Amino acid sequence: MAAVAHEAHGHHDDHGHHEENFVSKYIFSQDHKMIGKQFLMTAVFMGFVAMLLSILFRIQLAWPEEGSGFLSFFLGEQWAPDGVLKEDMYLGLVTIHGTIMVFFLLTGGLSGTFSNLLIPLQVGARDMASGFLNMLSYWFFFLSSVLMMISLFVESGPAMSGWTVYPPLSALPQAVSGSGMGMTLWLFSMAIFIASSLIGSLNYITTVLNLRTKGMSMTRLPLTIWAFFVTAIIGVLSFPVLLSAALLLIMDRLAGTSFYLSDIIVGGEMLTQHGGSPILYQHLFWFLGHPEVYIVLLPSLGITSEIIATNSRKPIFGYRAMIGSILAIAFLSFIVWAHHMFVTGMNPFLGSVFVFTTLLIAIPSAVKVFNYLTTIWRGSLVFTPAMLFSIGLVSTFITGGVTGIILADAALDITVHDTYFVVAHFHVVMGLSAVFGMLAGVYHWFPKMYGRMMNTRLGYVHFWITLIGAYGVFFPMHFVGIAGAPRRYYNYSVYNDFDVDSYNMIMDLNVIITIFAIIAALGQLIFLFNFFYSIYRGPVAEQNPWRSTTLEWTTPVEHIHGNWPGELPTVHRWPYDLSKPGAEEDFIPQTVPLMEGEEEH
Amino acid sequence: MGTKLIILLVVILGVLAIAQMMRIYELSSKITGKKENEISNRDNRFNAKLMLLFMFIFFGSFIYMMIHYGWVGRGVAASKHGKDIDWLLNLNLIIIISVFFLTNALLYIFAFRFVKKPGVPAYYLAHNNKLEMLWTVVPAMVLAVIIILGLKTWNEATGDAPAESIRVELFSKQFDWTARYSGKDNKLGKFDYKLTLDNNELALKTAATIDSAIRMMEEGPMGIKTLEAKLNDKKIIMVPEDRAKMEADLSRKERLIRLLYQMKEKHDPKDDAAAWDDFIQKDTLYLCKGKEYEFNFRSKDVIHSAFFPHFRAQMNTVPGLTTRFKFTPDVSTSEMREIKGDENFNYVLLCNKICGGAHYKMKMMIVVMEEDAYNDWFKGKMTKTFRDTYFPAVEPAQPAADAENAEGQTEQAQNAEA
Ligand code: HEM
Ligand SMILES: [Cu+2]
Ligand SMILES: [Cu+2]
Predict the structure, then answer these.
(1) Which domain holds residue A451?
(2) Could you read off the pLDDT of A207-248 as tens digits, one per residue?
(3) Do A394 and B347 touch (CB under 8 A)?
(4) Which of A52, A181, A535, B37 could pair with A545 as two cysteines, CB 3.0-4.6 Å apart?
(5) Does residue A133 lie within any of the structural domains?
(6) Is residue A129 part of a domain?
(7) What is the pTM of this model?
(8) Nearest CB to A415: which of B19, B97, B314?
(9) Which residues are bridge partners to B191 per DSSP?
(10) How many domains does chain A divide into?
(11) Per-residue pLDDT at A189
């Protein structure tokens, strides 16, 4: 297939740039740059929806039982009579918020945007290995997004069993209203999403392996590509397991099988299913679920490695150790899944094994952090908005990583599992770190995507509001959680019945958290504005605005099919020759041959 | 409607205002010839200072919270193993908080210190094996300590309960908890979900309860006979959907009744005694200070989680499966009230696994009593056993004689079915 793509593009070269009609250029495009932008647009939309949902339920948590015009504005009388959120809908909002953020924004959106945009550009290829499959991947993603959105509007409400959709709750419409039509849509949406992700990943892997330009050996790949590549491999190995988990769940729901069900009486009805195990679902889910958290995080780590090196004007410290860490994390991420199940009654010895493997992951994570720090050390830092967000990522990666150690320690997890401490942990690593990486990527490669610059000042305001707002939201949650507050509670007023101290602490912090959440959300509007305004009116970009070494900046600003007007570039060096002693400029593009007597890194 | 319009109007005006500001900004940068991608030294230094400032505010508010809530705001543990867990948690917290401060400080200070200074080039440093070795080995050693201590506590907390610990079952359903004490013999009677009836909510398995379940299934108001009669009655006109539903209901019940008869055949009446002396307790769970309990968890419908925040204990309840957790409460309710200085404080059992709309309300109070008070309470309860309350007509059976079988009893409980 790779060879075919090559030939096809060779063909383009002869003819130069050829005319395309509107539909094939903007809608059913097979060009990786356009597909990347389509992913980004869809993801930004989904991300804002998910953010809005979170504000809705945060209002309920901070001011329970008080009517809010804001809630009735968005939810109407059915789900928020007199502006007070319904219990069921609270769970529905939480569920869809989580699903969209994890899968649609940070998996589809993040990999879809940047793997598509950057893999061909940074390895020196004309396009993805298969443009058609790539297009298909986007349209599956689009379709699954539409289904997920529709599920918000069905009569009985969207899925309400948490983003992990554990059966039996998710299997039994009698147990919660969202497990009816809403859950069916959720499952079909996710099944299509998985197909999209698999097609995309196979394409990324093939492209990286087969379409690297002359001289681009694996050890000359930018860390972004390494991260996207490994992410795609993780996806290919783990998503099929989620698909089978989902299919079995669909069967239990529609065909009366008993994969996950046993000895249940619900809504007064005695079910005959016997012998299934809800725990089986959890094993299948987390076999994807844990690798998934790295599918979310690794691309961001790759993106920031690139941005931090470029804007420190220094090579990334320990390039090979960084690759090694990515590989180690990827490998370990497949053998830690049961740390999400320490209190399901698992065999204590099995638990011990998972404690061990999970804590091992902290080592490559620590290596990465220290390598980032050393890269910044004695650099010559340029604070572009992208650089600010990258530094934000390192900070939040530290903060979220260390709390993982508490959770991985099974003895401690007994007391904090499913509390707000977990919520704090995974938001700091995903909601902050991974999102910061994504935003950094948008600011950094915006000129490559749209040929224009985003406004720097607005970028600064956006960053500082986001950093303060986001830490303001998630830092106090650690305290709420350690004090023992369970997650997925509609109302913490129940604490008033037995422990006034904890009640006061939780309610105070809940108000603070919600206020910060509103501030942070408003801050994102600045980004939204900057983004769309700059697409149309931003100043035109230079070819290499950040004085970067990688190949994408050797392509013309104007997008052309096939990326490089003439021959494909040849690569002579690794991507991190920044501030190399003896060089005239503080960066040497990968296409510049080694000077006489110059040693390659 | 009015508010909606106002909100929309404000949003639109806001966007327009920012757009105007952008115009002005653009015009001015066109005049000065400033490029968007060239960050001025002033901007660089400004952000560098903000980094440092942010670090102080960030650390400051963390320290403030720790002081304000007294370390992490957790209170004392009310169980024996809970104290070990808290000790371990504090140790881990000290380690991770130190790492947090140290590495974050390095990050923000470097960001401040190494901001671009015109004329000072960056230091070309690609790697250094010694350093990289250092920060692989040091974390590994710290983690080794964490793992070893963690597994020790984990194994102690999750090990099997000693034979003499008191067995209590906690039964969960949407949206409440029911406790079942094992009575005098400290043996929980067997159960099977198919025996669930109004007078046998926990589906205990005895010859009598099997008979009454069969009777109900055959002759009850929604029993097989009634359903068959309705379906065959030509005079009743039914919507096809209702008929289909009723037929499905009938075939489900026919399957269940077959299983009930099988159960009846295999049932060993010797087991009944263990069930008859159990007693059921709602709303409040009473525990004795200093006694070890083994809790057996069951669920009727979906997964719940028995979360005892003050006792540092948690275990999921899973339909079709019995899970267990043991702990020894060692601070009585009144003692804890004194410690907390709160007259109205109570221990509580919460549900900690999303289980439906009223998940957040699914709780049970817990009272930990001194031994004497507990014994009095227990004696009173022994006159209200399962048999006394629901099946007073049944002869009080002789307790099962085979004492050596006590262990296997609870283990086998959920495998009762053929
Ligand atoms: C040092 C590395 C990390 C360790 C040791 C670690 C450990 C853990 C553990 C043990 C849990 C389960 C807690 C519980 O349910 O009680 C957990 C939850 C979670 N972690 Fe991490 N983690 C690490 C890094 C990450 C990263 C990088 C991400 C995402 C990018 C992440 C995302 C999550 C998520 C989403 C959950 C919650 C899942 C749920 O809904 O239950 N973690 N982590
Ligand atoms: Cu995990
Ligand atoms: Cu529950």
Answers:
(1) 2-10+31-554
(2) 999 999 999 999 999 999 999 999 999 999 999 999 999 999
(3) no
(4) B37
(5) yes
(6) yes
(7) 0.91
(8) B314
(9) B204
(10) 1
(11) 95
